[in-house]
Amino acid sequence: MAPPDEGSASGPAASHPTGHPAYSQTLPREPRSAAAARRLVRTALTVWGLEPLIQDATLVITELVSNAVDHGRLPSIRVIVSRPSANAIRLGVVDRSKTVPALRATTDEDQPRGRGLLLVDALTERWGTELYRWGKQVWAELGEEAT
């Protein structure tokens, strides 16, 4: 079941199921797209019965979208929410920049930005970057304990 269409700054954007259980959505490369990305994550996790992951997953997708907005090159990004196993999800944001994000060892506490990947690193089991000829996907995986 696909999530409902989400509105965006440029009008309704279509969401489409992809591959193994997954959802993806193309969004404008704008800060307000983080809200649509969070809705997509909440929808997918609710459909999959993985509500305990929603809080951490929405924080992670917000940071990944924020990085793509700051560092991407073209006017759109793609958000992907997939379920590689019964108790795990993978969040991804695709942009057209080949710049690989790096985890900062220290941050300037006076700066309001720059701690996003520290948060991603703390909340996820693992994260990384897949490079493509035309850009990259920054992804993060979260899971819940099997019951």
What does this structure look like?
With 147 residues, the protein is α+β, with helices and mostly antiparallel strands. It is 28% helix and 34% strand. The chain has 3 helices and 8 strands. The protein has a 6-stranded antiparallel β-sheet with strand order 3-4-5-6-8-7, covered by helices on one side. Strand 7 (126-132) and strand 8 form a beta hairpin. The longest helix is centred in the middle third of the chain and has 18 residues, at 54-71. The radius of gyration is 15 Å and the shape is globular. It starts with 5 loop residues before the first strand and ends with a strand.
Task: Describe the structure in brief.
The chain is of the alpha+beta class. The protein is 28% helix and 34% strand.
Proportion in β-strands: 25-35%
Order of helices and strands: EEEEHHEEHEE
What value does the average pLDDT take? 85
- Major β-sheet strand ordering: 3-4-5-6-8-7
| Apparent shape | globular
